């Protein structure tokens, strides 16, 4: 059993206010886990907000359901973990392409081909060590984890 | 997020204070659209007080850059903080929106 050194949770209707509240929850997490290196805090925060924003922007509620955003953030020795739940959501179809668009090198091409939503998913992939998305009952569950020197 | 706009003579400075996320991104587009509609050609977005930016915020900045260029102007960014810089480099967008140390330096050589 892994020791949990800090934990914060949130469950709210999946709307813009939930994202603002999640920023507050993350700030509180880092107050409790100030020993986590700044780079890890920054990268993990960015990935969590990206994934939660994806739920708010693109989540589709199952017929007759209200869409909820659930977030469980934990800091354990060597690992930061976020379980982001899209509760009451229709199954993801297609499952998000977590590899995102290929990188291009020409700045003009970069500007012309900029794809906002695809960029968010590829950012998540780059910011965490592992990311998975799976269906559990009426919920799509994103699990993000980042290896960190925290708490070792 | 709060936006303030100042005419600095050689350029228009838009200061963005707070988190440039999916909530604030549409507001940034509105502010820059207003500057461009008012004839602003050179725009500097001062990010000194922007503590966080996600892909929505970055998308808004890129959209604003395109808008400024389409109207014959340009948009540049200054005083970028570490998290914003991380997002720019991660997406290679620092090559399109190159950060300047201060707003004054953004159009210094133009």
TrEMBL record, chain A:
Q: Can you give the residue ranges of the Histidine kinase/HSP90-like ATPase domain?
A: 30-140
Q: Which CDD domains match?
A: HATPase_RsbW-like
Q: Does the keyword Nucleotide-binding apply?
A: yes
Task: Give the residue range of the signal peptide.
Answer: none
Keyword field: ATP-binding, Nucleotide-binding
The reply on keyword Repressor is no
What Pfam families does this protein's entry cite? HATPase_c_2
Q: Which domain of life is it from?
A: Bacteria
Entry coiled-coil feature ranges? none
Please list the GO terms describing molecular function: ATP binding
Q: What is this protein called?
A: ATP-binding protein
> What organism is listed for this UniProt entry?
Arthrobacter burdickii
Automatic annotation (TrEMBL), chain B:
Q: Which SUPFAM superfamilies match?
A: SpoIIaa-like
- The segment(s) forming the STAS domain are 14-110
Which Pfam families does the record associate with it?
STAS
Query: Which InterPro entries does the annotation name?
Result: Anti-sigma_ant, STAS_dom, STAS_dom_sf
Q: Please, which domain of life does this record's source organism belong to?
A: Bacteria
Q: Which family does it belong to?
A: Belongs to the anti-sigma-factor antagonist family.
- What's the name of the protein? Anti-sigma factor antagonist
